[in-house]
Amino acid sequence: MAQKKMALACSECGSRNYTITANPNRVERLQVKKFCKHCNRHTLHQETR
């Protein structure tokens, strides 16, 4: 069975730069500081649904 994927979107520009596997046990959206190649700096990325 294939795993479901979620995207991480930059909170500054909104581009979806990263993908992660979906975790059904997570109740809140994942927030991680990652590098955004469009903003050219580290920004907060949030899990999209």
UniProtKB/TrEMBL annotation:
Record keywords, A-Z: Ribonucleoprotein, Ribosomal protein
Q: Does the keyword Nucleotide-binding apply?
A: no
InterPro entries (UniProt xref): Ribosomal_bL33 (IPR001705), Ribosomal_bL33_sf (IPR038584), Ribosomal_zn-bd (IPR011332)
Q: Say yes or no: keyword Ribosomal protein present.
A: yes
Q: Which GO terms describe its cellular component?
A: cytoplasm; ribonucleoprotein complex; ribosome
Secretion signal, residue range per the UniProt entry? none
Recorded superkingdom: Bacteria
For this protein, the record's SUPFAM superfamilies field holds:
Zn-binding ribosomal proteins
What GO terms describe the biological role, i.e. biological process, of this protein?
translation
UniProt GO molecular function: structural constituent of ribosome
Xref: Pfam families:
Ribosomal_L33
The Swiss-Prot or TrEMBL record describes its family as follows: Belongs to the bacterial ribosomal protein bL33 family.
The record's listing under NCBIfam families reads:
PRK00504.1, PRK00595.1, rpmG_bact
What protein name is recorded for this chain? Large ribosomal subunit protein bL33
The organism encoding this protein is: Liquorilactobacillus nagelii
